[in-house]
Design a protein that fits this description.
12 strands, 331 residues, eight-stranded mixed β-sheet, two-stranded antiparallel ribbon, alpha+beta, Trna Endonuclease, Chain: A, domain 1, 2 domains, Arc Repressor Mutant, subunit A
């Protein structure tokens, strides 16, 4: 091949690379653009007051995109998430030996080296470290960020986290809201083990579903412990409080697989055993297969208790359309 043809091929390749780069940037922008989520909320007459806070995350607000991607990939590892919890617990000063409750000192040192490179933690003397962001009150916001990123990166779905909305009866704080496959998905994120989750939190979760009316709702607990022993029991108790003796017939809490549970294929209880992304994928596919488009209404407040009748009033009787789906509502 002569020189002119080589130069022509190079120019052609450069043009293709430029066009491909533009397409990639366009796709990234569309995934990062939360407007579709806010549009779905606006259709429900819900206004977003605050979203995507960056001041409470483990890493610096100006972390370069390359390191942000590395941090996201590391967040997929359960041991990394556990170490971040320990770092937050001892954020003013910690050593490698403070981080070896769930992994070896070699693994802990590797994580510290990576976080030092990112400047998410800073060395203090020969053996000590501290977090760059301080104070850090909880691992929760960083975990919420990760779940929102997972929807964007793995499910091609715009998502927002740390969402505060105005004028909702049950309180306006939502951990993660995503627009997935033209469906609104609400995720409540719990970073503490099941013993740290109270019945009132399950009640609030169900009440927030009433306000938001998502097609899919997920309570995610970042633990590898069993869901059946406490969380499932609390769900059953709260559903019985709302629906009385009919709750186990109308809205049974059923095992989907292993420690994943569902109510009518629309509300899911999820832990992080094995893999978070895989667990979410199992639940979302289950909803597509069994929970939509024709399905029973969400278990709203129609039974005994202070919220009695609220869900029935919210949904009305007969047929009602919500976000393009037609549902049969019990009259």
């Amino acid at each position: 091949m002569d020189k002119d043809k080589i130069l022509q091929e190079l120019r052609s390749l450069k043009k293709k690379v430029r066009n491909l780069s533009k397409e990639i940037e366009s796709i990234k922008t569309s995934l990062e653009d939360p407007s579709s989520v806010e549009k779905m909320l606006k259709m429900r007459r819900i206004q977003v007051f605050r979203k995507n806070p960056i001041d409470r995350l483990f890493f610096p607000p100006d972390l370069p995109a390359f390191y942000k991607t590395r941090f996201y990939e590391m967040m997929k590892k359960y041991s990394f998430r556990l170490i971040l919890r320990d770092m937050i617990k001892h954020q003013d000063r910690f050593r490698i030996q403070d981080l070896t409750h769930y992994c070896s000192s070699k693994v802990a040192k590797g994580y510290c080296d990576l976080l030092c490179e990112m400047e998410a933690i800073i060395k203090m003397g020969r053996e000590g470290f501290r977090t760059f962001v301080s104070p850090l009150y909880s691992f929760g916001p960083t975990l919420e960020w990760f779940i929102a990123e997972m929807f964007k990166r793995e499910f091609a779905s715009p998502a927002i986290y740390g969402v505060n909305v105005k004028k909702t009866p049950s309180g306006g704080d939502y951990d993660v809201i995503a627009s997935w496959n033209r469906r609104l998905v609400y995720v409540e994120v719990k970073s503490s083990p099941p013993k740290g989750v109270e019945l009132s939190e399950v009640s609030t979760f169900l009440s927030r579903i009433e306000d938001l009316l998502p097609e899919v709702a997920i309570l995610f607990n970042d633990t590898q412990l069993r869901m059946k022993d406490k969380l499932v029991v609390m769900f059953e108790e709260e559903l019985e409080r709302r629906h009385g003796g009919e709750s186990k017939t109308l809205f049974p809490v059923q095992r989907l697989i292993e420690e994943l549970f569902h109510v009518q294929h629309r509300i899911f209880i999820v832990n992080s055993k094995r893999d978070i992304m895989e667990n979410f994928q199992i639940c979302l596919r289950d909803h597509l297969r069994y929970g939509a488009p024709s399905c029973s209404p969400l278990p709203l407040s129609t039974g005994p208790g202070p919220d009695r009748g609220r869900g029935r009033q919210a949904l009305g009787r007969g047929f009602r359309r919500e976000s393009g789906l037609t549902e049969r509502v019990r009259g």
